[in-house]
Amino acid sequence: MKVADDKHCFACGDLNEHGLHADITTNDGNTSRCKIKIPSRFQGWKGMVHGGIISTLLDEISMYACRNISLRGVTAEIDVKFRKPVPIDTELEVKAKVTDIRRKIICVQAELLVDGVVHASAETKVFNLE
Questions:
Q1: Does residue 1 surpass a pLDDT of 70?
Q2: HEC states along the chain?
Q3: Residues 58, 72: Cα–Cα separation, whole Å
Q4: Is residue 39 pLDDT above 60, yes or no?
Q5: How many Å separate Cα 33 from the centre of its chain?
Q6: Distance, CA of 94 to CA of 108 (rounded, Å)
Q7: What value does the CA radius of gyration of the chain take, rounded to a whole number of Å?
Q8: What pLDDT is recorded for position 71?
Q9: Could you tell me if 38 and 47 are in contact, meaning their C-beta atoms sit under 8 angstroms apart?
Q10: How many angstroms separate the CA atoms of 21 and 16, rounded?
Q11: How far from the centroid of its chain's Cα atoms is residue 75's Cα?
Q12: Domains of the chain, with CATH numbers?
């Protein structure tokens, strides 16, 4: 499978006019982080971010944590835990770190926080295509 970045990713693509435009940073320690406000057009229940958007952010931040290991990976599995409602138009911190590497599978833990409190988390397995 060939994957290519055309800047239209829903989560982080600059050219996707309907996307989240998440500005994610990485470092040499196989971690990633992002601060973002989710506008009301992505709400589920009144005033709350839709669970699919939360899952998308946790998935994307997990992929970025793998960038020092592989630039070509796809999500093999993601287990999202929703702990508290995530409010719309509030600054969120989303972060992830690689916890294990097993042959072609990279294991990642991710969290979405509001004011330092975890509102959602995920354990992700990324399949390394390289």
A1: no
A2: CCCCCCCCCCCCCCCCCCCCCCCCEECCCCEEEEEEECCHHHECCCCEECHHHHHHHHHHHHHHHCCCCCCCEEEEEEEEEECCCCECCCEEEEEEEEEEEECCEEEEEEEEEECCEEEEEEEEEEEECC
A3: 18
A4: yes
A5: 9
A6: 13
A7: 14
A8: 76
A9: no
A10: 8
A11: 11
A12: 25-128 (3.10.129.10)
Q: Is the pLDDT of residue 16 over 60?
A: yes
Amino acid present at 14:
D
The C-alpha angle with vertex 54 and arms to 68 and 47, in degrees rounded to 5, equals 145
Task: Tell me the per-residue pLDDT of 55-66, one tens digit each, with 9 for 90 and over.
Answer: 999 999 999 999
**Is residue 64 a contact partner of residue 108, using CB atoms and an 8 Å limit?**
no
Tell how strand 117-128 and strand 105-114 pair up: antiparallel
Cα 35 to Cα 14: distance, rounded to the nearest angstrom: 16
Rounded to an integer, the average pLDDT of 41-46 is 96
Q: How many CB atoms lie within 10 A of CB 55?
A: 16
Per-residue pLDDT reduced to its tens digit, 81-128: 999 999 999 999 999 999 999 989 999 999 999 999 999 999 999 999
